[in-house]
């Protein structure tokens, strides 16, 4: 069997594998992939549990201001030897008896500066966690959209590589026929064969890229991916709203959840300092108790008592060896450090926002340029083929024109995906990314059904 025959069989087998991979009638849409990611993405699920745990910070803080009720119940069996020294000879009385001591106490803080600081701190921790979780939700949309478009772009590259290989296979047959009729040259055949062999390698590489991209998406959504929705033919870039960077800057400063979480972290640190300063302040509690005793001591043998009391308890700290002052100073320094980190994060967010705004606003021009380049490449291929037929161009010119055409298609696809992602990343940087934005992005894809 000749080498060309063996190569043709290998190509046919590869084509069969590609056809088998595309066999499912339905594709996985972007929104379906997002719904699966919300349920199955490990990173997002971890954020969910973290946020659930953080909800208890507010409850724990509030507990410092609510009544504290405690009950004790202590039954015992006692044996006592009581010697009466006032009697001559010191008579001893052996007693065997049961004793009981029970109490119920309620303590309600009336003035509790440390408890108030703990309460405000707990509320700030819960709100900070909510903001952080909102950020994780927005990040999930961008991560999912990136994985989806990366997988779809890999599919597009595979389709282009296969198309390029088939075009070169057809060109190779044409060169061989011309060579056999004496109208072509051996050089034309070798040039096309070299390009064809490279195209075969590119198909294999593109197929690996598709597998890797699908696996990455599958890890997020928790199921296998075999086919994705394709971009619509009437891809049109919508106008960016708002169109002014200052408006986006205002949105980011007021809405970015990462910055909100850091502001709450500053509040937490400040309340930590207040909590330590409260170590110098008195505490006043309302205390109510109900107690019952039955022979609880040797002096109350065979005596029962029920005591009810209501009063206040004032606790005044006097000296703790300087620990309160040192802890308060330490907490204040930490609060200032966290404030500085907030300032740095704000500056970084503005830089990222400016970057994504510029990328988004310029993506329309890049898309139009890529579209024009594709139109020019299509005309060039057709014109080059006519020139070869007229003897004005050679086979190498056709190969170069075809390569330029496939490069233009690849560039246009990349420009489209980059534009869609840049819009999401801009809204992510501003902190205003919502599910509706993902729905708007999904409209750029052809929805062919449910599956995957």
* Global shape: elongated
Distance between the termini: 40 Å
For the sheet with most strands, the description reads:
4 strands, antiparallel
Uncertain segments are: 1-25
Strand order of the largest sheet: 1-2-3-4
What is the helix/strand order? HHHHEEHHHHEEHHH
The helix count comes to 11
Gyration radius over CA: 39 Å
> What helical percentage do the residues reach?
55-70%
State the fourth-level CATH superfamily: Outer membrane efflux proteins (OEP)
What is the level-2 CATH architecture name? Answer: Up-down Bundle
| The CATH class | Mainly Alpha
How many discrete structural domains? 1
Structural description of this entry:
With 452 residues, the protein is of the alpha+beta class. The protein has a single domain (28-77, 95-315, 346-442), classed as Outer membrane efflux proteins (OEP), CATH 1.20.1600. It is 66% helix and 14% strand. It is built from 11 helices and 4 strands. The protein has a 4-stranded antiparallel sheet, with no helix packed on it. A hairpin with a 6-residue loop joins β1 and β2 (91-111). The protein is elongated, with a radius of gyration of 39 Å. The protein starts with a helix and ends in a 10-residue tail after the last helix. Mean pLDDT is 86; it is low at 1-25.
Task: Describe what is shown at a glance.
The chain is α+β, with helices and mostly antiparallel strands.
Using brief descriptors, characterize the structure shown.
disordered N terminus, elongated, 66% helix, 452 residues, single chain, alpha+beta, Outer membrane efflux proteins (OEP), 4-stranded antiparallel β-sheet
């Amino acid at each position: 069997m000749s080498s060309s025959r063996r190569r043709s069989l290998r190509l046919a087998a590869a084509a069969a594998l590609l056809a088998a991979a595309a066999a499912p009638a339905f594709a996985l849409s972007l929104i379906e992939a997002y719904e699966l990611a919300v349920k199955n993405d490990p990173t997002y699920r971890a954020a969910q549990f973290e946020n659930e745990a953080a909800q208890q910070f507010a409850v724990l803080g509030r507990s410092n201001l609510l009544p504290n009720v405690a009950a004790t119940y202590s039954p015992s069996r006692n044996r006592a030897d009581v010697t009466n020294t006032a009697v001559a000879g010191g008579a001893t009385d052996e007693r065997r008896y049961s004793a009981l001591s029970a109490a119920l106490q309620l303590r309600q803080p009336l003035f509790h500066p440390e408890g108030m600081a703990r309460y405000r701190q707990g509320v700030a921790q819960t709100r900070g966690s909510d903001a952080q979780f909102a950020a994780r939700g927005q990040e999930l949309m961008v991560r999912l959209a990136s994985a989806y478009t990366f997988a779809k772009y890999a599919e597009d590259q595979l389709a282009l590589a296969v198309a390029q290989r088939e075009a070169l296979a057809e060109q190779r047959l044409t060169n061989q026929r011309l060579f056999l009729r004496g109208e072509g040259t051996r050089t034309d055949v070798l040039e096309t064969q070299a390009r064809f062999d490279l195209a075969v390698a590119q198909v294999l590489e593109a197929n690996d890229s598709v597998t890797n991209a699908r696996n990455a998406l599958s890890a997020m959504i928790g199921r296998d991916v075999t086919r994705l929705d394709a971009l619509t033919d009437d891809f049109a870039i919508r106008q960016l709203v708002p169109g002014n960077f200052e408006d986006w800057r205002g949105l980011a400063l007021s809405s970015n959840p990462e910055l909100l979480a850091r502001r709450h972290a500053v509040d937490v640190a400040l309340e930590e300092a207040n909590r330590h300063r409260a170590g110098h302040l008195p505490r006043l509690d309302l205390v109510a108790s109900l107690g019952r005793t039955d022979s609880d001591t040797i002096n109350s043998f065979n005596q029962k008592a029920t005591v009810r009391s209501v009063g206040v308890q004032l606790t005044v700290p006097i000296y703790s060896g300087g620990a309160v002052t040192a802890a308060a100073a330490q907490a204040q320094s930490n609060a200032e450090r966290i404030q500085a980190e907030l300032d740095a994060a704000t500056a970084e967010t503005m830089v990222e926002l400016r970057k994504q705004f510029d990328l988004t606003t310029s993506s329309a021009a890049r898309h139009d340029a890529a579209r024009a380049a594709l139109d020019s490449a299509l005309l060039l291929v057709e014109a080059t083929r006519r020139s070869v037929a007229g003897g004005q161009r050679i086979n190498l010119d056709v190969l170069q024109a075809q390569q330029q055409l496939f490069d233009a298609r690849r560039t246009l696809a990349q420009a489209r995906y980059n534009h869609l992602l840049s819009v999401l990343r801009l809204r992510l940087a501003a902190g205003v990314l919502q599910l509706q934005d993902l729905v708007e992005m999904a409209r750029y894809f052809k929805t062919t059904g449910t599956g995957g």
